[in-house]
Amino acid sequence: MKALVWHATGDIRLDDVAEPQIEQPTDAVIRLTASAICGTDLHFIRGTVSGMKPGTILGHEGVGIIEQLGDQVRNFDIGDRVVVCSTLSCGYCAPCRSGNTAQCDNANPNGPEAGTSFFGGPQTTGPVNGLQAEKARIPFAANTLVKVPEGVSDEQAILVSDIFPTGWFGAEIAQIQRGDTVAVFGCGPVGQFAIASALLMGAGRVIAVDPHDDRLAMARRQGAFTVNFEKEDPVAAIKSLTGGTGVDVAIDAVGVDSQHAHHGPAAQQAEQKAEKHRQEVKEVAPDNYDHQHVQHGNWIPGDAPTQALEWAIQALRKAGTLSIIGVYPPDAQTFPIGMAMNKNLTMKMGNCNHHAIIPHLLEQVRMGAIDPTQVLTQVEPLSDVISAYESFDKRQPGWIKTELLPSQ
């Protein structure tokens, strides 16, 4: 079968690989009818999340049809249409029973202290082969799969595999109260769903921060106030929009590939921190900080890993809440803790508890409360996955979220 395989930093290939088979009685094998490209996948190719194992199939978003079932998977039938939770979970350990499915004690082959296991990630997460393929093995299938209700399309379901629940998780852990003013840093797919989730939870005002006009336009269509940090100082703009107070909640939906401003008033501040930012990039991307694996303008690491965090902390009101859902690797050791501590901030962060959230969001989609396909901008065949990655990586206008069709 065809699958997108990680070979090295800056080196991904659409390869012929063996079809997956049942390995454990808790496994299922699905034929994928939809997959997608996520910004997290770019971290692995840019080298800002290290520890990838050559030969790992990429991708952690999927919708498909069950073709094989292990003996211990008793809540599904062959032929069921399912959405794959991006993070694996057993469903019966203490963290899973409390709803913290991303911290399952059993899913990660590296042991209960290893943390989150997800598809298509580095060695520390399994590794478990991913979903940008024609078929996939699903460990702990009884909890890692969720049936797709009648009336929910593949295009809708693929967006509930990871990015919508992650945006929801970011708003949920921030404990947004009705009337709160929320700033969302990063208006990629997860940021767009963080905006939508904050509004669904009753936020009075959402301020979206990003440097790309197409992403900001999508945020405005949702009703967000927008700030382009290449044109104005984002902290000053947020303070102006909040009467000088700052926001109640800030959500970092960017992560380690954050960028500083290259134009406008915020660029002057970035120039003063150039060496600091360079050291941060070297810390998280030791084999690509000097663009050793950059090819034709692709796979460039973010040039200021802590920039979104710094802006978020500065933009918060005193005793506000910082929610971090952008991906940061264990190698990221730099954090503006003093700035946060001296504002009495509450900080919440982590990987999304997909299984605890996805059923609720599928029902919201089924009832018509929200249509997640408003964020979907491209649908491409798996055969064109490399060029789709290159366009998404360069943030070409209009390339916000791409669905992949494995059967084409």
Characterise this structure.
The structure is a single chain. The protein has 408 residues and is of the alpha/beta class. It has two domains: 2-162 and 352-405, Quinone Oxidoreductase, Chain A, domain 1; 164-349, Rossmann fold (3-Layer(aba) Sandwich). It is 29% helix and 21% strand. The strands form three sheets. Strands 3, 5, 6, 7, 8, 15 and 16 form a seven-stranded mixed beta sheet that branches. A six-stranded parallel beta sheet has the order 11-10-9-12-13-14, sandwiched between helices. A three-stranded antiparallel beta sheet has the order 2-1-4, with no helix packed on it. Helix 5 crosses helix 6, helix 5 (163-173) packs across helix 13 and helix 8 packs parallel to helix 11 (307-315). It is globular. The mean pLDDT is 97. This is Alanine acetyltransferase. It holds the Pfam family ADH_N. One of its GO terms (molecular function) is zinc ion binding. Residues 272-282 have a biased composition (Basic and acidic residues).
